[in-house]
């Protein structure tokens, strides 16, 4: 059985048995917080539990490495929507130790892309069009510096209310221990 079939079979029972009822909430975060964190599988349940958040408390936006690549991209737009449309009053950027983005080597990733069927001509066309694929795919060397970069991009965004604190933290994906990199309450 394909994974999609398994998911749909489970989902049918989930809905039929009304197991969704324990998760019912509104679209507005009860704690008025939006979190940008990494898509790492270890953080799926660990991060909210380590911060004492439950379903409905916060908005969570995920990107590889909790990195914001562009000030006018989808990640930044999601943070602004959370603040202005969904009543979030604080932003937390949370990276983690042992992040896969710290090991990304763009040239190796491009080789994997080609092995999966993307033609070199497509890659060349993107580069000839001005896309710096190596820069776009590059990870980071230091998680604290990466979190600081993302915090600064958000904090200095021209559309963000300067009264919204933007915090930067790093979590240990094994223990859940949080370390503060930037306390947004001190930098407003």
TrEMBL record:
Keyword Transmembrane helix appears in the UniProt entry: no
EC number: 4.2.1.1
Pfam families: Pro_CA (PF00484)
The reaction(s) this protein catalyses: hydrogencarbonate + H(+) = CO2 + H2O
Name of the top EC class for this enzyme: lyase
Membrane-spanning parts: none
KW Metal-binding (keyword) present: yes
Matching Gene3D superfamilies: Carbonic anhydrase
CDD domains: beta_CA_cladeD (cd03379)
Keywords of this entry: Metal-binding, Zinc
Required cofactor names: Zn(2+)
InterPro entries: Carbonic_anhydrase (IPR001765), Carbonic_anhydrase_sf (IPR036874)
Domain of life: Bacteria
Coiled coil: none
Family membership: Belongs to the beta-class carbonic anhydrase family.
Name of this chain's protein: carbonic anhydrase
Native organism: Planococcus wigleyi
């Amino acid at each position: 059985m394909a994974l999609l079939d398994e998911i749909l079979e489970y989902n049918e029972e989930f809905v039929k048995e009304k197991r969704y009822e324990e998760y019912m909430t509104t679209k507005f975060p009860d704690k008025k917080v939006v979190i940008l964190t990494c898509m790492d599988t270890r953080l799926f349940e660990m991060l909210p539990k380590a911060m004492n958040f439950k379903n409905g408390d916060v908005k969570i936006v995920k990107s590889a490495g909790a990195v914001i690549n562009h000030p006018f991209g989808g990640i930044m737009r999601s943070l602004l929507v959370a603040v202005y449309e969904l009543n979030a009053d604080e932003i937390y950027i949370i990276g983690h130790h042992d992040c896969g983005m710290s090991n990304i080597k763009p040239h190796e990733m491009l080789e994997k892309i080609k092995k999966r069927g993307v033609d070199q001509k497509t890659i060349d066309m993107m580069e000839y069009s001005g896309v710096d694929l190596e820069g776009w795919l590059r990870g980071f060397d230091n998680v604290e510096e990466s979190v600081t970069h993302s915090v600064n991009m958000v904090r200095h965004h021209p559309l963000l209310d300067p009264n919204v604190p933007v915090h930067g933290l790093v979590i240990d994906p094994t223990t859940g221990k949080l370390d503060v990199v930037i306390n947004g309450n001190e930098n407003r």
